């Protein structure tokens, strides 16, 4: 991977962005999150609750999907490349601050949005949704196993669970909206490959 | 900082040794969640006050969708609930009584009505202040049926085919327990358990069975639907289910 060696390879039109593990971790997590959101809507929004009823069954599905939600990521940890991606998501460089400032002032120029494999927005989203998942899991377990904690805790847990669910719903909608707006990013997660042109435009500091 | 961007390919990525901001955001989110649980009672009271006021002035009804946004939540344990109206609704009173009887909706409407205005408290936390309920006192129906001396409890069944509830006979004879026909000064709609539901003012709202269709006087209390699933049978608001809400009646 020396500078010279790269310079002499003919420019490929496609670059590899994600391997099998990353793709499947994302897919299964997305599916489980989808089940959580849909069942939550059935439990929570009166119009949907009236449509579906069967509260016990819906609760059971919601609980199981929620419990399974962190599993794909935990299983993915066996992969070195997946761990490397988590490292990329975790570590922030000076360019990430530039990106965040650019995003805050809605500066869309390329120079205002420097990004390596993941941009600062994706990094913050990943870290936040991971933390939020653990909070939802913790509060969910308190609501589920009512005898583990004093019942007063259940009300408090319900309160946090409800409001965080609403927040996650909004943030998730933003995540999906941005994916809809960038077909190539989506095909990157589907096929694992993106065009070199896209990579250089969206992730100029990324060296695949 | 821009000047630090590497321009040529092949340079190690700048984040190879970056700050672990991601980990901090993750742990911070978890910490905030824990803090939220600890401060929830205070936050919830403040939020209920604010949203309760806002819901009163909100023509869109969107505040009703917010957590604790004021207003009722729809819970049904059955997959679908048949609709009943004045022509096909029946309420039977039977069991350990001398005069079993079946009431139509008009029969119930013709009886003396009692109106109570109290808070509704759900065991999951939401509370709807000052909600009027109107209907026939349960004690009146029991007296009309002639409860036998061996009786000790009352069991309620519902035309959703699934839900059941029960009260001790002493509880059932309280004056703040109604077979309710009206709620919020309207006939009770299907979604709220209409045309007739039970209203047990002093207890958590799961005792107020919706779609009431049967009142059976029994010897002993048989736990109802949610009570088989861990809820308290004697569900006094503020003194059961491990909660300390302000009593409603």
UniProtKB/TrEMBL annotation, chain A:
Bilayer-spanning residue ranges: 24-45, 124-143, 163-181
Intracellular or extracellular location(s): Cell membrane
Domain Cytochrome b561 bacterial/Ni-hydrogenase: 17-180
UniProt xrefs under SUPFAM superfamilies: Transmembrane di-heme cytochromes
Bilayer topology annotation: Multi-pass membrane protein
InterPro entries the UniProt entry points to: Cyt_b561_bac/Ni-Hgenase, Di-haem_cyt_TM, FDH_cytochrome_b556_subunit
Gene3D superfamilies in alphabetical order: Transmembrane di-heme cytochromes, Chain C
Main location: membrane
Pfam families attached to this UniProt entry: Ni_hydr_CYTB
UniProt keyword terms in alphabetical order: Cell membrane, Membrane, Transmembrane, Transmembrane helix
PANTHER family in alphabetical order: FORMATE DEHYDROGENASE GAMMA SUBUNIT (PTHR30074:SF6), FORMATE DEHYDROGENASE, NITRATE-INDUCIBLE, CYTOCHROME B556 FDN SUBUNIT (PTHR30074)
Protein name as annotated: Formate dehydrogenase subunit gamma
Organism: Streptomyces coacervatus
Lineage of origin: Bacteria, Bacillati, Actinomycetota, Actinomycetes, Kitasatosporales
Automatic annotation (TrEMBL), chain B:
Matches recorded under Pfam families: Oxidored_molyb
Residue numbers spanned by region Disordered: 1-21
UniProt cross-references to InterPro entries, sorted A to Z: OxRdtase_Mopterin-bd_dom (IPR000572), OxRdtase_Mopterin-bd_sf (IPR036374), TAT_signal (IPR006311)
Top-level taxonomic group: Bacteria
SUPFAM superfamilies from the UniProt entry: Oxidoreductase molybdopterin-binding domain
Species name: Streptomyces coacervatus
Ranges of residues in domain Oxidoreductase molybdopterin-binding: 80-226
Protein name: Oxidoreductase molybdopterin-binding domain-containing protein
């Amino acid at each position: 991977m020396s500078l010279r060696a790269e310079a002499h390879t003919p420019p490929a039109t496609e670059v590899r962005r994600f391997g099998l593990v990353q793709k499947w971790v994302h897919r299964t997590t997305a599916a489980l999150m989808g089940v959580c959101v849909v069942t939550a809507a059935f439990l929570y929004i009166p119009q949907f609750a009236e449509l579906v009823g069967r509260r016990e069954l819906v609760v059971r599905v919601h609980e199981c999907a929620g419990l399974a939600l962190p599993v794909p990521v935990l299983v993915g940890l066996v992969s070195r490349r997946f761990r490397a991606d988590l490292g990329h998501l975790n570590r922030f460089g000076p360019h990430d601050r530039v990106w965040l400032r650019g995003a805050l002032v809605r500066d869309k120029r390329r120079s205002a949005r420097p990004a390596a494999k993941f941009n600062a927005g994706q990094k913050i989203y990943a870290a936040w949704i991971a933390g939020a998942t653990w909070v939802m899991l913790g509060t969910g377990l308190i609501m589920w196993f009512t005898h583990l904690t004093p019942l007063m805790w259940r009300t408090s847990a319900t309160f946090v669970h409800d409001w965080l669910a609403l927040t996650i719903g909004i943030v998730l909608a933003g995540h999906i909206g941005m994916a809809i707006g960038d077909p190539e990013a989506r095909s990157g997660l589907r096929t694992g490959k993106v065009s070199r042109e896209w990579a250089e435009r969206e992730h100029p500091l990324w060296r695949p | 900082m821009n000047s630090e961007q590497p321009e040529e390919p092949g340079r190690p990525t700048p984040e190879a040794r970056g700050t672990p901001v991601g980990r901090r955001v993750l742990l911070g989110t978890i910490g905030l969640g824990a803090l939220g649980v600890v401060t929830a009672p205070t936050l919830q009271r403040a939020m209920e006050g604010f949203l309760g006021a806002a819901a009163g002035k909100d023509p869109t009804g969107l505040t009703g969708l917010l957590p604790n946004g004021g207003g009722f939540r729809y819970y049904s344990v059955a997959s679908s609930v048949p609709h009943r109206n004045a022509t096909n609704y029946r309420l039977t009173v039977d069991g350990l009584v001398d005069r079993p009887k079946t009431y139509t909706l008009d029969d119930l409407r013709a009886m003396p009505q009692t109106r109570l205005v109290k808070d509704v408290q759900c065991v999951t936390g939401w509370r709807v202040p000052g909600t009027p309920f109107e209907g026939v006192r349960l004690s009146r129906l029991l007296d009309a049926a002639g409860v036998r001396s061996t009786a000790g409890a009352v069991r309620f069944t519902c035309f959703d085919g699934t839900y059941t509830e029960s009260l001790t006979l002493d509880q059932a004879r309280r004056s703040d327990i109604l077979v309710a026909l009206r709620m919020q000064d309207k006939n009770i709609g299907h979604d709220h358990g209409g045309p007739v539901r039970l209203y047990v003012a002093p207890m958590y709202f799961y005792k107020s069975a919706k779609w009431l269709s049967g009142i059976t006087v029994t010897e002993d209390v048989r736990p109802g639907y949610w009570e088989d699933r861990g809820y308290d049978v004697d569900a006094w608001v503020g003194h059961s289910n491990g909660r300390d809400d302000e009593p409603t009646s």
